[in-house]
Write a structure and sequence with these properties.
It is an enzyme of class 3 (hydrolase). About 40% of the residues lie in helices and about 10% in strands. It is α/β, with parallel strands linked by helices and about 350 residues long. The protein is elongated, with a radius of gyration of 22 Å.
Length: about 350
C-alpha cells in the first residue's frame, strides 16, 4: 500500500511541476529550538524609513529576494562599504521551485556569510523589506525555510564570536531607500540568470503542490486511513491545512480566527491542544498518548505538534483525534477552496485505476 501511494504521489508531482524534482525536496531537521542569536527590529513605517536613511555604526548589508512571473527566483545583496563609494553586489540565481519567501531568506543568509568572508569592523546590520522572512528568522523550527534560517543563525553566532553583534531590521520596500533599491535590482538580475549550483531541490514554501521533506516516510497507518482523513493528517503535518492562519495567509479567509472557539489565531498547535470546540477529539488523543507511553504536551513545550507528528506510534491517535474532532467535514466548502491553492488535498489522494492508494471511506 505505501509503495503504491508513493507511485501515485510521484505521478502527481510529475504532472504538476514545471521542473525536474530529481534533486530532492527541501530538507528539514530536528534541532534545538533556539531564538535568533542576534537582534531583530521591526519599527513603524515612518521610524523605519528615518533609520534606514541614517548612517549606522558598523557595516550595513541590504538584502532582497525576487520571484519573476516566469517562476524563477533569485536573491540579491548590496553593500556600500564607504559612504558615497561604489555599490557592490552578490547575486544568487535560484531557478524554479522556490518562492519569494525562500529568496528573501537566501538574501539574509548570503549577506551574513558575506560579512564573515569580508571581515568588516564593527556591528553588522542586514536590512530587508520582507517581514515574513524576518519573522521566520526568529526560530529554527522545522518547516519551510528552516535550512536557510539555520545558515543565518550559524553565521550570526560566528560573527558574535568575533565580537560583532548582528541586527536584522525591516525597511519599507519601494520607498526610495537607495540600499533597498540596490538589493531589489540585484535580486531581479539574479532571478533572470541561470540557476546556481545547489538549488536543484524544491522549496517547502511552494504552496502549489504537496512536498514531503526527506526523512518523512509515508506512514503505513495513515496510508490505510480513509482518504479524507489521511489528507487532513498530512495537511496538518505540513501546516498547509484548512485552518484559520493558513486560509488567511492564502487569501481564502478574512481573519485567522478559529471558527470552532473564536480564538484569534487558529494554528496547528491550537487545533490539537487548545481549541475548546475540539475537546472530545483531544481526550481521545491524550488517551492514545498515555497508552503509547508518549509524554503529553505541556504549555512550556515550544513545538509539541512537531514532536507528535514525528512519532509513528502516535499516528493512530492523531487520526482518531481528527475523526472525532470532525476535521475533515467541518466547513467543507472552505476546505476545498484551500485545496485549490494547495494541491495536497482530496484530489491528490484519489484512486487512479488499478492500485488503490488509500482505502475508501
Amino acid at each position: 500500500m505505501p509503495n503504491r501511494l508513493g507511485q501515485r504521489l510521484a505521478k502527481h508531482l510529475a504532472q504538476r511541476l514545471s521542473r525536474d524534482p530529481s534533486g530532492g525536496i527541501e530538507r528539514t531537521e530536528q534541532c534545538e529550538l533556539k531564538g535568533f542569536p542576534g537582534s531583530i527590529r521591526v519599527l513603524d513605517n515612518e521610524e523605519a524609513l528615518t533609520e534606514a536613511n541614517q548612517q549606522r555604526l558598523g557595516t550595513t548589508f541590504w538584502s532582497d529576494g525576487s520571484r519573476l512571473d516566469t517562476g524563477r527566483a533569485g536573491a540579491g545583496v548590496a553593500l556600500q562599504a564607504v559612504p558615497g563609494g561604489p555599490w557592490e553586489h552578490v547575486e544568487v540565481p535560484m531557478g524554479h521551485g522556490h518562492e519569494a519567501f525562500d529568496a528573501e531568506l537566501m538574501g539574509v543568509a548570503t549577506a551574513l556569510e558575506w560579512a564573515l568572508e569580508r571581515q568588516p569592523l564593527g556591528p553588522i546590520w542586514v536590512l530587508l523589506d520582507a517581514q515574513n522572512a524576518i519573522d521566520r528568522l526568529k526560530s529554527a523550527r522545522p518547516g519551510p525555510g528552516q535550512a536557510l534560517v539555520l545558515r543565518a543563525h550559524r553565521a550570526v553566532e560566528k560573527l558574535a564570536m568575533r565580537g560583532q553583534p548582528v541586527t536584522i531590521q525591516w525597511v519599507p520596500g519601494h520607498s526610495g531607500v537607495v540600499g533597498n533599491e540596490q538589493a531589489d535590482q540585484a535580486a531581479k538580475r539574479a532571478a533572470s540568470k541561470q540557476t546556481a549550483p545547489g538549488f536543484e531541490h524544491l522549496s517547502l514554501a511552494d504552496g502549489r503542490v504537496y512536498k514531503m521533506p526527506r526523512g518523512w516516510n509515508l506512514d503505513p497507518v495513515a496510508g490505510k486511513a480513509p482518504k479524507r482523513l489521511a489528507s487532513r493528517y498530512y495537511q496538518l503535518k505540513t501546516g498547509h491545512a484548512p485552518i484559520g492562519t493558513y486560509l488567511h495567509r492564502i487569501g481564502q479567509r478574512e481573519s485567522p480566527e478559529c471558527q470552532a472557539c473564536k480564538e484569534p489565531h487558529e494554528t496547528v498547535r491550537h487545533v490539537l491542544f487548545g481549541c475548546r470546540g475540539r475537546r472530545t477529539g483531544r481526550r481521545a488523543l491524550y488517551r492514545a498518548l498515555e497508552k503509547a507511553g508518549v509524554p503529553l504536551p505541556t504549555a512550556a513545550e515550544e513545538s509539541p505538534e512537531a514532536r507528535l507528528f514525528a512519532e509513528p506510534i502516535v499516528t493512530q491517535g492523531l487520526l482518531q483525534f481528527m475523526a472525532e474532532a470532525n476535521l475533515f467535514n467541518d466547513n467543507e466548502r472552505t476546505a476545498r477552496e484551500a485545496e485549490s491553492s494547495d494541491a495536497w488535498g482530496w484530489d491528490t489522494l484519489e484512486e487512479g485505476g488499478p492500485g488503490v492508494t488509500l482505502e475508501d471511506e
